[in-house]
Write a structure and sequence with these properties.
This protein is of the alpha/beta class. It has a single domain (about 5-180), classed as Flavodoxin domain (Rossmann fold), CATH 3.40.50. Helices cover about 35% and strands about 20% of the residues. It has five helices and five strands; from the N terminus they run βαβαβαβαβα. Helix 1 (about 15-30) packs parallel to helix 5 (about 170-175). The longest helix has 15 residues, at about 15-30. It is globular and about 50 Å long. The structure holds flavin mononucleotide. Flavin mononucleotide (FMN) binds near residues 16, 18 and 87.
């Protein structure tokens, strides 16, 4: 059984990406996986300062924001799931702060090769290219870091809370759990 960290990137309770993330979490739990859940929007995150002193003071990020509260779980997990809505054709700022601080693992020599990674996302426009600049940074960065992409759930055409129920997004997210 795997340990999976799910990072939620929307502050909207009952929102579309959170509903899909919850469907993933429920399915992963049923499969016996250990799931660690965090919501990036309720964390104090400042992104990367580029100081290159990661792990030199015993913490992943020397500047000590809430990335450090999940760093150990990220390192010991077999898989990471990033769920978030599209904001301005990319990931929301808080999700990007976490992704930026994942850089500390590279600087600190922490091997993340083979981590299973997946993205769950949604957007208002009915156009799959809206996801390009959100998925791209993960896929290009992950290729460099040796991550193993197991599949993405990308659902266009949803805007209001509850819209996801009119799609198969939650079913897709539940099915994604079988890839871990
Ligand atoms: C700040 C902001 C920026 C957004 N930018 C985009 C965008 O560039 N393209 C798009 O299709 N939808 C955009 N949306 C719409 C959301 O992606 C959409 O409402 C989504 O379903 C929200 O997901 P959530 O319920 O998980 O928060 C934006 C919404 C907000 C609040």
């Amino acid at each position: 059984m795997s340990k999976i960290v799910v990072i939620k990137g929307s502050a909207r309770k009952g929102g579309n990406s959170n509903s899909m993330a919850d469907a993933f979490i429920a399915a992963a739990g049923e499969l016996g996986h250990e799931v660690v859940e965090c919501n990036a929007t309720s964390m104090n995150l400042n992104g990367c300062h580029g100081c290159m002193s990661c792990f030199k003071t015993g913490k992943a990020c020397t500047h000590d924001d809430d990335f450090n509260t999940i760093a150990d779980d990220l390192l010991t997990a077999d898989g990471w799931v990033f769920s978030f809505p599209i904001y301005w054709y990319t990931m929301p700022g808080q999700t990007k702060c976490i992704l930026d601080n994942v850089f500390s693992f590279a600087v600190g020599g922490k091997d993340c090769k083979g981590k299973k990674v997946a993205i769950i996302s949604c957007c208002e426009e009915n156009d799959m290219t809206v996801f390009d600049h959100a998925v791209g940074p993960f896929e290009r960065g992950g290729a460099l870091m040796g991550w193993d992409f197991v599949g993405n759930v990308l659902v266009p055409g949803v805007n209001n809370v509850g819209d996801i129920a009119n799609t198969d997004g939650c079913e897709q997210a539940a099915a994604l759990a079988q890839k871990f």
